[in-house]
Amino acid sequence: MFFPLPDFTRDRRLRDALAYITFLLGHEGPGSLLAELKELGYCTVCDVDYFFYSGFGFLDIDVNLTQGITKNTEIVQLLFQYIGMLKATPPDKRIYEEISKVNEIKFHFRDKLSPQFCVKCICSNLHIYSFEDVLCTRALMGPFDADAIQSLFKYLDVNYLSLQVISPIFKTKGIPLQKDPIYGTEYAISNMTTAELANWAKVELNPAFFLPASNEFIPERFALKPTAKPGLEIPELVQSNEFLKVWHLKDSTFNVPKAFYGFFFKSQLVQDSPLNSNLIGLFIKLFYDYVNQKFYSADLVGINYNISTNKLGLEITVDGFNDKLDAFLLAFVNELINFKINPKRSDIVFGLYINSLKVFDTYPISTMLYMYQDVLLTANCWTYDELIEAFPHSTEDKILPLMRNIWANCQVEVLAHGNIDREEAVQLAQKVSQLLTNSMKPYSSSLHVLYDNNRDIHLPSGTSEFAITNSHHENHGFLLYHQMGILNLQHQALLELMHQIISEPYFNQIRMAEQLAYVTFVSQKFTRSGTVGLNILIQSAYELKYLESRVDAFLNSLEDHLKKMPLEEFNKERNALITQISEKPKQMFTFSWNLWKEILLSQYVFDRDTKLVAYLKRFKPSDILELYRGTLRTDNPRCRRLLITIKSAKTKEMQGKFPISGEAAAPKHAEEMPLKEANSGRGNALPQTGNQSSSSIKSEHKGRIKIKHIRKFKCECSLSPIPKIIIDKI
């Protein structure tokens, strides 16, 4: 739904008035338009924003429907009921000043932005605003003007409304459709009936709509707390016992009144089965659906909260201005404890969840490739098919008991970073831990099982291939993973340097010279379970076997490239990587997240970048050559590879456009790279596994394994060593 507007870009008075109206239309708290739409089950999301172009603009209201196109009339009626409430209620100076105050706080304590973004915004603003207002016009608001606000309601009239509905239902309704000549999109245009316009113009006020209350989370105190140890950049373990560990770092680098809290609840129940994975996923979606309305005011002032899962448990992170952040966190945890499932919303959330599983085949090719890679490499990771199979058993009555069991039987690890005192961090961590765990202690033996499950699949020697067919995408997907070793600082630094050296030659050959794909790149793979490797991803119309042959040819040609690389070029690549790694984060949240990742990895190398640089300075060209020979040479019997391919079922439709049928040949301008022999070497490869033969894996030829059943394949492979838990030695 959108209303046309004049261009208010240069009229600050009317632009600020429009910001007030947009704020109220897009509010998500009690009494808002979205709250009523969700209560009636009509939608899940309502986004409101305005846009200005040269001479005109739009007020845009986007609603994600839950019941197709069957409730369009009711949704529009509710919109005009809410607009009617705003017209009948005098503009509220208190709300306007709260909006202005929050904008001012965010402006004064804005995180450092990239130079490119700053230049782009400033140059754009110089064409519109006066020189004095270039930096602050879009952030700071002028004085309250009730007349300006009232004057804008004339544009929110029924006769100006344009309604756009996107739904697959139109094809089944027998509606005559036109087709866009360029993109082929089918659409229909019709006028709204006179009766509809008359009903919307004469709507009565709805008692469900009212203005939002005061925002209790607007920060008031911005003083920086004294630092006991200036210059310290590594968190200290300020509390440690069998069930609670608290890491604390008082910020002395960014000097902003902000804070970050991370809570890691370690429990083997989280990924114990597809059923548990479903139940926890549903809990997170149901809780978000409920708590979004309650804590929308916190979101407005920049308080961010997140709940997610990983292989070892649940993560809760909260960040924002430190003033009132502790009060928000305690309120948030209390809602977690006392949460009750709303039957009116559960059916909708369950439907959205299962639909997200069923449409996995429509996800971007790269997303699907990485998903299958995680499933194939991780001991406890479930496919979408397994989750769908377990969904009928994922009933509402099982969700809350499972969550209570997780809260009561877990180990809690906390990171407090920012404008926070040591005592404050410990006290808050203890309160949150006690509230959620309810003073119940887990069995320590369960933690051993937990870490034992946090292991990667140890790939067998040769190439293990997993192939699927996809009917939604026109391109094929190709992901080749070389498993190269156990995660430690030396291996990580060596792999980072290898990636730095080969990325440009790879791009020049595969992307530019041979033009095999537009989407293709080399990346590193570091898992939380403690293994490292190299990924090569291609999204292309060429045959998959041909893509593999060209990638193998490139990999085998690297030996000559590495042998002939001058020392000056090697030093140049190494110094470039050192410069990149040594660059300090520009924002406190980025630095906080880097610290948090070390806790999630259970490695606690908080100065990882410094140590990586120290290793990089020691490496010689021979180290890279040894790593290459031991892990990337395709004819090395110790090379361990995982090949994941997605074959497009639309291949025949594209035969006239791309050379994908029959025996594919390289583009005429491509240079053939000969495969050369190389001596096998141990390098940094994982230890050799035992016998891999079984009914679930079929050898196509020597060194190649066809994966037919993911679960059976994983059961018959050995596991990588348990990740090193350094905390026990601290």
Question: Can you put this structure into words, describing what you see?
Answer:
With 730 residues, the chain is of the alpha+beta class. The protein has 3 domains: 2-91 and 144-201, Cytochrome Bc1 Complex, Chain A, domain 1; 236-453, 2-Layer Sandwich (Cytochrome Bc1 Complex, Chain A, domain 1); 462-662 and 671-729, Cytochrome Bc1 Complex, Chain A, domain 1, CATH 3.30.830.10. The protein contains 23 helices and 18 strands. Strands 14-15-13-16-12-18-17 form a 7-stranded mixed sheet, with helices on both faces. β6 (236-240) and β7 (244-250) form a beta hairpin.
- Report the CATH C-level class of the largest domain: Alpha Beta
Rg, alpha carbons: 29 Å
Secondary-structure-based class equals alpha+beta
Kindly identify the CATH topology of the largest domain: Cytochrome Bc1 Complex, Chain A, domain 1
Q: What value does the average pLDDT take?
A: 87
The end-to-end distance, rounded to whole angstroms, is 58 Å
Biggest sheet, in brief? 7 strands, mixed
- Helix tally equals 23
Overall geometry comes to globular
Number of strands: 18
> What name goes with the CATH superfamily of the largest domain?
Metalloenzyme, LuxS/M16 peptidase-like
| CATH architecture label name of the largest domain | 2-Layer Sandwich
